[in-house]
Write a structure and sequence with these properties.
This protein is mainly β. The protein has 1 helix and 6 strands; from the N terminus they run E-E-E-E-E-E-H. It has a single domain, classed as predicted glycosyltransferase like domains (Thrombin, subunit H), CATH 2.40.10.
Length: about 130
């Protein structure tokens, strides 16, 4: 019986890039609206975000402004309740990820991120590290 059966190859899965747990505030722009959010983790190709102002569905094009980093564009790939995964339009390099993480750590240790005259989000409120 095994002579006449076809061997079905299992599909190859790409290894998932490592995720760096980073917690910082973020502002999303989607559908001509601003959303407050929290970054949960990041990899070269995307990030996991918690929306503080309602869900965004898969396929939505977004721009995300992140604390201590420039803004990035991408597409939402999955969504569960208030969390979603975003794929960046252009992947982030190891160098930029390390530099960003160092800037976040520096801000945590010096308290600059929470200072009144420090960086502000789109609403003008001081940006802060979300523990």
């Amino acid at each position: 019986m095994g002579i006449f059966s076809k061997v079905v190859a299992e599909p190859k899965q790409r290894p998932r890039p490592p995720r760096n747990d980073m917690s910082c505030s973020a502002t999303l722009v989607a559908n001509n609206r601003f959303y407050r959010a929290e970054l949960l983790n990041v990899s070269h190709g995307g990030c996991k975000v918690r929306s503080l102002e309602g869900p965004l569905g898969p396929g939505t094009r977004v721009q995300i402004a992140l604390e201590a980093f420039h803004s990035l564009s991408g597409t939402i790939r999955w969504s569960r309740e208030d969390e979603f995964g975003m794929q960046f339009s252009t992947p982030i390099s190891d160098y930029l990820l390390a530099k960003w993480n160092a800037q976040l750590e520096k801000g945590r240790s010096s308290g600059d991120m929470a200072a009144e005259r420090g960086p502000r989000d789109f609403w003008g409120t001081p940006r802060r590290i979300i523990p």
